[in-house]
Design brief:
- This protein has 20 helices and 15 strands.
- It is globular, with a radius of gyration of 25 Å.
- A hairpin with a 2-residue loop joins β11 and β12.
- A six-stranded mixed β-sheet has the order 1-6-5-2-3-4, with helices on both faces. Strands 9-15-14-11-12 form a five-stranded mixed β-sheet, with no helix packed on it. Strands 7-8 form a two-stranded antiparallel sheet.
- About 45% of the residues lie in helices and about 15% in strands.
- The protein has about 425 residues and is an alpha/beta fold.
- α17 packs across α18.
- The structure holds one RNA strand of 81 nucleotides.
RNA sequence: GGAGGAAUGUCCGAGUGGUUAAAGGAGACGGACUGUAAAUCCGUUGCGCAAGCUACGUAGGUUCAAAUCCUACUUCCUCCA
């Protein structure tokens, strides 16, 4: 199975310029491809993982991947399919975020792989020194405003009667086009991949390469990952699922995948793991025979957590999971409790010797306010070391601890460890 | 620069002087059922134990009473030989 067949089978191809010619180019030797990541936050999230892993797939198939971080484009803001103008981010913040993303994107690729070694670039490097006149004359002349306005990605900004678009954001696509042209010229990069929302921006680059470099280059977009019911993917109770371990702990990350609904498991296995077709079919066979065992979810969570956080972190996450969901909390040993804390289970330590349950809930962030906390307790949503508690004057202290720790559960699956002085 | 229009809770969106902590929807959270699934059903969804407090772009004003009226400001949208 060649790389395109593999990607097709995984459902990873949404749109491409000339798939036949792309196949030819890929089979006739090493190709260079890139994908860009703009600093819109201080970390990437699970959505970004898709293009990142596709770069890896290409590298494993013998091609050269380039990760581009948008030190320049991040200052402008991509308007594609955004309902409103983005608030400006300060230059300093963009620089900080850019360097964080650079590290993150690099962890998935091999930079020591002979001709196929990955390359990491920052579009700030070739954009910062460009002057206005050159930009307008050399780049701007190749873009038709009429065509730009016809793009689906900016239509809602142009047509809605309560929003608009600034010249700044409208020009974004020129910068991304320039990136592709630049990488094509310097590194003979001939493929750009990105999410399906990036089609317009990628085409800007394809056109610019043709006009300025006289080269034929490819565009390949990946589908937007959604849940089985078509709703947005990548969010949990606590928000976005980040790749940064300090923002989303490996345990929460692992749990996110464990909670995948049955209808999406196969799709996610194809998109997010490097398991082969045969392996995935075997997993799905088991899954379909006994869905309640959640075999598919386990394989999924295990593979992705390994990839993003490493094996040790994954094993820790599994230990926590096993202790909390599989066993009887009361039977945990003192070592188990210690291990849970080391493994990174959400935890809060109090300097006091004892506190009421309500105070603990609020001060540890399990409940956002006293009122919420009371509601949870009265609503029978809180368990302490495995026992439901519905009395808000209940007090936690050394006396009712379990080997020095208190395991609180909110709802069905949110666990939090609390310890006292 | 001129003329007109808009700004409401997490989001969308109703509301044009009092019964409005603000309809409806989405989302979120909790409960039941389950398999840490989906679907379904029920409840909650500004803060406060409470009295009460704070909220409808910002700052003032009118009034017994304002999200609703007036003034200024800010931001956005539409049109202009």
């Amino acid at each position: 199975m060649d790389i395109i067949q593999d990607l097709t089978w995984r459902g990873l191809i949404n749109q491409s310029t000339d798939i036949e010619r792309l196949k030819e180019d890929l089979s006739s030797g090493m190709c260079t491809l890139y994908s860009g990541f703009d600093p819109t936050a201080d970390s990437l999230h699970v959505g970004h993982l898709v293009p990142l892993l596709v770069l890896k797939r290409f590298q494993e198939a013998g091609h050269k991947p380039i990760t581009l971080v948008g030190g320049a484009t991040g200052m402008i803001g991509d308007p594609s399919f955004k309902a409103t103008e983005r608030a400006m981010i300060t230059e300093e913040t963009v620089h900080t975020w850019t360097s964080k993303l650079q590290k993150q994107t690099s962890q998935f690729l091999s930079f020591d792989n002979g001709a196929c070694s990955a390359l990491a670039v920052n579009n700030y490097d070739w954009t910062k020194s460009m002057d206005v006149i050159s930009f307008l004359r050399d780049i701007g002349k190749h873009f038709s405003v009429n065509m730009m306005m016809n793009r689906e990605s900016v239509k809602q900004r142009l047509n809605r009667d309560d929003s608009g678009i600034s010249f700044t954001e409208f020009s974004y696509t020129l910068l991304q086009g320039m990136d592709y042209m630049e990488l094509n010229k310097k590194h003979n990069c001939t493929i750009q991949i990105g999410g399906s929302d990036q089609w317009g921006n990628i085409m800007s680059g394809v056109d610019l390469c043709r006009r300025m470099n006289g080269t034929h280059v490819h565009a390949l977009t990946l589908p937007l990952i959604t849940k089985a019911d078509g709703t947005k993917f990548g969010k949990t109770e606590s928000g976005t699922v980040w790749l940064d371990a300090t923002k989303t702990s490996p345990y929460s990350f692992y749990q996110f995948w464990m909670n995948t609904e049955d209808g999406s498991v196969e799709n996610y296995l194809k998109v997010y793991t490097f398991l082969t077709k045969d392996e995935i079919e075997a997993v799905m066979k088991q899954q379909n025979e006994a869905p309640h065992l959640r075999h598919g979810q386990k394989v999924l969570a295990e593979n992705i957590t390994d990839l993003v956080h490493g094996k040790d972190a994954r094993i820790s996450a599994e230990r926590i999971t096993h202790a909390l969901f599989k066993g009887d909390l009361q039977s945990l040993s003192a070592e188990d409790i210690q291990q849970l804390q080391q493994d990174g289970m959400p935890a809060t330590h109090f300097k006091e010797a004892a506190l009421s349950l309500l105070d603990v809930l609020v001060q540890s962030g399990i409940a956002p306010s006293n009122k919420e906390g009371r509601k949870l307790i009265e609503g029978n949503a809180i368990s302490h070391n495995g026992e439901k508690v519905s009395d808000s004057t209940y007090t936690l202290s050394k006396e009712n601890a379990l080997h020095g720790g208190h395991i609180l559960k909110k709802g069905k699956k949110y666990y939090h460890m609390v310890t006292f002085r």
